[in-house]
Design brief:
Blueprint: E1 2-5, H1 9-23, E2 38-43, H2 50-70, E3 76-80, H3 81-87, H4 89-94, E4 100-102, H5 110-121, E5 130-132, E6 154-158, E7 160-161, H6 172-175, E8 180-181, H7 184-196, E9 201-205, E10 213-215, E11 221-223, H8 224-232, E12 239-243, H9 252-260, E13 267-269, H10 277-282, H11 289-302, E14 307-314, H12 321-334, E15 338-343, H13 361-384, E16 390-398, E17 404-408, E18 414-418, E19 427-431, E20 434-436, E21 439-441
Parallel strand pairs: 1-2, 2-3, 3-4, 4-5, 6-9, 9-12, 13-14, 14-15, 18-21
Antiparallel strand pairs: 7-8, 10-11, 16-17, 16-19, 17-18, 20-21
Bound molecules: 5'-deoxyadenosine and iron/sulfur cluster.
Iron/sulfur cluster binds near residues 165 and 207.
Amino acid sequence: MFIRTYGCQMNVYDSRRMADALATVGYVGTDNAAEADCIILNTCHIREKAAEKVYSELGRVRALQATRREAGKDILVAVAGCVAQAEGEEMVRRAPVVDLVIGPQAYHHLPKLMAQAEAARATPRGRAGIVATDFPAESKFDYLPDEVTPAGVSAFLTVQEGCDKFCTFCVVPYTRGAEYSRPAAEVLAEARRLVAAGAKEITLLGQNVNAYHGDAPGNGEWGFGRLVREMAAIDGLHRIRYTTSHPRDMDDDLIRAHGEVPALMPFLHLPVQSGSDPILRAMNRKHTADDYRRIVEKLRIARPDIAMASDFIVGFPGESGAHFADTMRLVRDIDYAQAYSFKYSARPGTPAATSDDQVPEDVKIERLSELQALLAEQQTKFNRKFVGQRVPVLFDRPGRLAGQLAGRSPWQQAVHATAPADWQGKIIEIAVANAGPRGLSADESAAA
Ligand code: 5AD
Ligand code: SF4
């Protein structure tokens, strides 16, 4: 089985759970698509041309399948993730290579559906063409197997999924469905298993992770702040992160947790999308730019070294030059350590897509490059502050150059260092010698 993952960290987590589910019926993972008996594309639908990219990837899969058939073997092909959810039947019609189209809420049915797809091979039609994109009443988490594959020193854990906020640009409420929080006991048990398997850092995931309101182990519910505090009590768990959060769900308990829970890392990805109130209103974000400024102010009081990150959309329908200037002003006020920024892309089925106030492409390109120049400058400035300081790094992978390892600082910066191989998997303090837009380095000579 070969799984290719596109898009966000939730897809990375989902791919692992799909692999775990298929492992229970004998599938073994491979990194080589050419030798796989089953290929799963775990897709992302958030921005432009997502579906087209999947169709062209499926063209390559078909070529691979032809080669394999010449050798007397076969490949089962499944498309999962948000493009699968959005395309459904259309995908089976357009791409005859696809055996199974499976939406994110149906992954617990994967072993059964794969068996059906395989059985169909023996029939004259040869292909099952299964579409599993209904939102089931039950939670997939109740049916997926407990963790079987170790997830490494830095692991993802989905605690919340879906979204009820319906920002007018976003497909998520349609592809991932309604907001759902996993029960706290289930989340904690999974966290303990990850730590027992070697995780030192866990990133809690959700489309609206801080909207978490899962069943408490006894009665009632826990909010996200409480969940974070309980996670921090797990022995051997040194670092906790979470993503992605919404400003409206940044409650006082969670803000306080940033000051009180040492394992909660001083980095927060809190997307604001725009700094203009009329645009925020048209986006249905339900907060103002000043609300956001106040939240960041409170976070910085609770945890003075917290590094802020965000997502931005430029060229949302109706965005004027003055609206965009408000975004630039907000960026200057907050001073970001990191950010993603995108040109608005009309997603079919979302309210903003049909607005007749679309911004011309050349204006979007210009605004995006202006914004990105400012963000890059802030990010470089942020990183340079660390030169000469010592920072603890969780080394989790080989570095770019031979003899190097790479890891992350508490502030989520990528850090490279010439290091003995046995530092991998450990948290080690290094002296920062060099810094650049992309991160930090302990080595004098190497560019960061
Ligand atoms: N166009 C551009 N960017 C988008 N995002 C979500 N939907 C769109 C869209 N239609 C961005 C948002 C979100 C991030 C994951 O992707 O900034 O926070
Ligand atoms: Fe999309 Fe808005 Fe929900 Fe985030 S909060 S997933 S941007 S609808």
